[in-house]
Amino acid sequence: MADGADPRVKLPASAAPGEVITIRTLISHPMESGQRKDGEGNVIPRSIINRFTCAFNGAPVIDIAMEPAIAAAPWFSFDMRVPEAGEFRFAWHEDDGSVYEVTKTIALA
Amino acid sequence: ASLLPFRASAAAEDAIAAFTGGAEAGSGGITLTAPQLARSGAAVPVSVEAPGAVAIALFATGNPAPGVATFTFGPLAGRRRVATRIRLSGSQEVVAVAKMENGSFTRISLPVTVAGRGAARQAR
Asked: According to the UniProt entry, where is the signal peptide (chain A) (predicted)?
């Protein structure tokens, strides 16, 4: 597990039924590509967040498969149509099997 | 000199074919936004949108490994749009390929010039 991975999510506290909202997510992570070498010429092993998912009341919103070409501190902005009030579950999956999760709720305006 | 044609590597075309299952990708119905000139390749902002797409894959054709990310949209996705920041090991063409609801594919590419050297090292 990377030290201090700090997942963050920004979304509105409420939305009108059927409204499309923008969700922004960020996690602090070096996304070590596995292609760099240390000072002695040894390859630094790959260690990245390889998958991110967002679900709302159990239904998938987006599922992102990541390669090392995603920049350090993976950031995403995407859109979602809000059908009802409910709970978001965000999950970031790391190469070593660690999963970082965030839940957020949204109310109907 | 900066206007030399960008060429997609064989590895990139293989990665794209793996996403499309070998199907020919058309054009249109997809937009890709990235800076023409990036000061650094360490975190280049890109945005892609394809109305009606079920998935969009991004490729950096000049990187040592061309795959960048695959975005799969669920039924609750609003606009079929994603923005993120990617690593580019140098000036190259960025390609986005969308899989549409009817199973067809559409693709778009955009040349990005990366200035500076330290970025290339980080991106590798």
From this structure: none
Interchain CB distance below 8 Å, B79 and A56: no
Q: Mean pLDDT of all residues in chain B?
A: 90
Kind plus residue range of the DSSP H or E element containing B97:
strand B92-100
Enumerate the residues of chain A whose CB falls inside 8 A of the CB of residue B86. 69-71
* Torsion, CA A28, CA B49, CA A64, CA A81, rounded to 10: 90
Contacts of B20 (CB under 8 A, 6+ apart): B97, B99, B105
Q: What is the pLDDT of residue A100?
A: 97
Which of B44, B80, B87 to mutate against chain A (most A CBs within 10 Å)? B87
Chain segment A23-64, per-residue pLDDT in tens:
999 999 999 999 899 999 999 999 999 999 999 999 999 999
Could you tell me the CATH number of the domain that includes residue A77? 2.60.40.10
**Separation in Å, CA of B42 to nearest CA in chain A:** 6
Distance CA A88, CA B76 (A): 12
Q: What's this model's pTM, rounded to 2 decimal places?
A: 0.92
pLDDT over 50 at B2, yes or no: no
- The answer to whether position A1 is within a domain reads no
Give the residue from chain B lying closest to A72, CA to CA.
Answer: B43
